[in-house]
Amino acid sequence: MSKTIIITGVAGFLGSHLAAALLQTPGTSVIGLDNLSTGKLENIQALLQLPSFRFIPYDVANPDVLHICGTAPIHEIYHLASPASPKFYQAAPFDTISVNIDGTKNMLELARRTGAKLLYTSTSEAYGDPEVHPQDEAYRGNVNTWGPRACYDEAKRMGEVLCYLYFSAYHVPVKVARIFNTYSAGLRNDDGRVISNFVTQALAGQDLTVYGDGTQTRSFCYVTDTVRGLMLMMEKEEANGEMINIGNPIEYRILDVAHLVKQLAASGSRITYHPLPQDDPKVRRPVIEKAKRLLGWEPKVTLEQGLQHTISSYRAKSITS
């Protein structure tokens, strides 16, 4: 059976991996949308050679997006478009708000008109700097609306509200994935997030920059595990109308991650300490019982395995560039 899938943010880190995975299924066609504000064409260079992939450079916050995808039936919509790194969303706060509110409403409306299923990628940032640990989907979060991260945190939360309304009012089959830190070799080395920072710095022999004292924690999920979780969410009818954490429940101190990267990269870099950014969460770890129960999903790749892949790929890129 043939299937047409829309992916917004297709030239981004996660969108490009998702598109490649989906296109491995015979009969699947993907229409990829991206305004290339943070996505990169090189991420989808191989996909552009495939007849089953069509790329449209477009901003999904523009309401005209409802008319540019052609007349072909649309079966599934993965709405991933948004800056995800603090470095990028703080540089473009109004665009971040727009893509998660206007863009989400546009995609929901497209799903309502076409009968497509829609998956919205929200974020663990919806929990803010959590006062409940670990975080399950029932926790309502501790988000500061008056700070540099609010443009992303609150825009994602508003996107979730729109998903709830389209599900409850129009019965659109909507699923919301709250994604925790995802990484792999495909993450931009100028992304500004902790894994890309540490690996890039370690390979260059630069100081590894730890913010605060390094005791703050994160949970890191390798991209293949995250993509598998998203595809299962789209597939399972039990996920309709649900918010589900997609992340690795194993928690690491940032300082320990820095030491592990140094070890795996055989790097002589020093670790240096810098002021903790405003509203940076102190802890972050998902409860994934819902994902296990509804999707039969849990991560398979360990942090050490994922870091080994990431370091090897970054090293190869630095040699060829």
TrEMBL record:
Full protein name: GDP-mannose 4,6-dehydratase
GO molecular function: GDP-mannose 4,6-dehydratase activity; NAD+ binding; UDP-glucuronate decarboxylase activity
Subcellular location(s) per record: Golgi apparatus membrane; Golgi apparatus, Golgi stack membrane
GO cellular component: cytoplasm
Source domain of life: Bacteria
GO-annotated biological processes: D-xylose metabolic process
Residue intervals of the NAD-dependent epimerase/dehydratase domain: 5-247
InterPro entries named among the record's database cross-references: Epimerase_deHydtase, NAD(P)-bd_dom_sf, UXS-like
Topology class, membrane: Single-pass type II membrane protein
Principal place of residence: Golgi
Cofactor dependency: NAD(+)
Keywords: Decarboxylase, Glycoprotein, Golgi apparatus, Lyase, Membrane, NAD, Signal-anchor, Transmembrane, Transmembrane helix
Entry EC no(s): 4.2.1.47
